[in-house]
Amino acid sequence: MMEYKNKNSERASLWNKEHPERAKEHKKKWLNNNPEAMNESRRRWKVNNKERLIEDRRRYKINTKYKITSEEYDELFREQGGVCAICGKPETAKMKNGEIKPLGVDHDHETQIIRGLLCSKCNCGLGHFNDDTNLLQSAINYLYKKDE
Prior knowledge:
mainly alpha, 6% strand, two-stranded antiparallel sheet, 2 domains, 2 strands, elongated, single chain, His-Me finger endonuclease fold
């Protein structure tokens, strides 16, 4: 029985290569008529390819949002020694799956120029101050007054 399946699969694969347009139409029609099978297939793929899915999503996000490639991100990460550009510590925040988040891409919201990579805490801190250096200086002055 297994030998038959293998030969049949080989024949189907060969036919698909020889008739790509018809194979595409046939697949599209089959998927429309079998949505449960397609959903199950996608679910299985996601379960078996979690790391690739996470990496693909990360790559897509940094490419579409910040207009840099994953290689450029990795280069920036290496230049910073894998730590936050502000506090000098590695990221500690975790994603839903329990893995450590990658450092966030910090950029000027007006010019879109990338300034560096930040941990979640520092990135949120800058965000709460709206990247306003006067407001940040006021916070620093306040902290110094509290120490006196």
